Amino acid sequence: MVSSSVLLFCRLTIGLTFAWAVLGKLRDLAAFREAVVDFRLLPEALSRNLAWVFLLAECALLLMLGLGNALLLPGFVLSAGLLGLFSVALGLVLRRSMQVSCNCFGVTERRVSPYDVARNLLLMVGSLVGCWTSLDAGEPVAGSTLLLLGLMALGLVILVTNLADVVETLRRPFPLNM
């Protein structure tokens, strides 16, 4: 039961995160393509095509996690691979002190930060745990457990996709009015 619940939690968390990312990118494909070009990791023409490859890979990942069964392990592997690749790209941008937006979840003015790398590494852990638990899926979970895990996954997705805001808010001293 625990392994099934952990698997479902990972599946929901990674699935919701990538669904949010795909929907954000689809709202403004041109901005996403420009964001990939702005990273200046590859020639412009190749970067524009790579943006489509990323989007298609994310859609394939959603399909794999949605269908489940034998596609779960490849879906989690693809997720971990994409998150690793994205983390390396973000790290290179940070290392070169570039002031560019990621547009990972849609158009934003927020510049790439170490929080983006941390978010991806946290999600990569979820993908790897998903890989591990998908090898022994166990028994199905009850409807109430599914609902609870879904809400927990949604909460985690909201937290990690807004990690920079959360950490920066908590780092500010709270005024004490005495």
Structure commentary:
- It is a single chain.
- This protein has 178 residues and is mostly helical.
- The chain is 75% helix and 0% strand.
- It contains 7 helices and no strands.
- The chain has helices spanning 2-27, 29-38, 44-67, 72-95, 114-134, 143-161, 163-171.
- The radius of gyration is 17 Å and the shape is globular.
- The chain starts with a helix and ends in a 7-residue tail after the last helix.
Oligomer: single chain
Beta-strand segment tally: 0
Query: What is the 3D form?
Result: globular
Q: Helical stretch count?
A: 7
Fraction in helix = over 70%
- Radius of gyration, rounded? 17 Å
Strand content: under 5%
Taking the sheet with the most strands, its summary is:
none
Secondary structure class reads: mainly alpha
- The helix/strand series, from N terminus to C terminus, equals HHHHHHH
Q: What's the pLDDT, averaged over the residues? A: 90
Low-confidence stretches: none
Cα end-to-end separation? 51 Å
Quick rundown:
The chain has 178 residues and is mainly α. It has helices at residues 2-27, 29-38, 44-67, 72-95, 114-134, 143-161, 163-171.
